[in-house]
Amino acid sequence: MDIIELSMHLIDEDTDQPRYQFDEDALQELMKSIDELGLLSPIKVRTVPGGRYKIIYGNRRYKASQMLGRPTIPCIVSNVTDETEIYLEQIAENLTREGFSPIEEAEAFHKLLNDPKFSSSTKFLSSRLGKPESYIKNKCELLKFGGAVKKLIVSGTEIRKDKLTEDQLLPLKDLPLEHRDPLALIMARDEMPVSDVKKIAKLFKDKTISSGTKDKLLYKSGHELLETWSVYEQNRAEPVQARRSQSGQER
């Protein structure tokens, strides 16, 4: 695998790549590292018409080098032209890097599954990316939520105020939109653990509770919703216990 130095002005960023969110603080840290130690890992580019190159992966390293005013950058040059192969390689590379958000992943998977240019299947993506089909499907479920919720989604499992993990959101994914997004925002605000989110989701999935009642519940805090779930479960259990008691007496 040959690595060559290419002039920065001959390289274009790929605006259609899966990753488009770049943390400014992380970019500044990368600049500092490159300035002190040099670029430790080359970027990968492909040839395009006109004697130019387009980045396959390494946009952050390119941006940082550009901001430092570096005239050249070490590159691996690929002649690949298949759009699906390029996009898959971009996803695979980003999956190994920090900062690739769950929503960026979800949008990338959705694009491969639904864009006629790719027309991939979940099974194909699973085999190529080494991820279970359930992983890909669950990521795509995140796209059911609205923009306000998507902005709060973060990687990992740590529960943080005004942030949402994938595990927190998945129990809510099948609720109607009018309940799904408001509940997600409550879960973020009140830092509700996944076990509590599942209980609250169960409350809102119960078809014996009217939609109007559920609308009113959205004015409660997460902890108040949990108390409502507890009372509801207790009330449901009482008739069952009464029937069992009566049955025992009849015997």
Shape: elongated
Query: What is the overall pLDDT average?
Result: 91
What radius of gyration results from the CA coordinates? Answer: 25 Å
Structural class: alpha/beta
Number of helices: 12
What is the H-and-E element order? EEHEEHEHHHHHHHHHH
> How are the strands of the biggest sheet laid out side by side?
1-5-3-4-2
Give the number of DSSP strands: 5
Which runs of at least 5 residues are low in confidence (pLDDT < 50)? none
Major beta-sheet overview: 5 strands, mixed
Percentage of residues in helical conformation: 40-55%
Strand content: 5-15%
N-to-C span: 82 Å
List its salient traits.
12 helices; 251 residues
Summarize the entry for a quick read:
With 251 residues, the protein is of the alpha/beta class. The chain is built from twelve helices and five strands.
Set out the fold topology.
Layout: E1 3-7, E2 11-12, H1 24-37, E3 43-48, E4 52-57, H2 59-67, E5 72-78, H3 83-95, H4 102-114, H5 122-129, H6 133-141, H7 147-150, H8 166-169, H9 177-189, H10 194-205, H11 211-217, H12 222-250
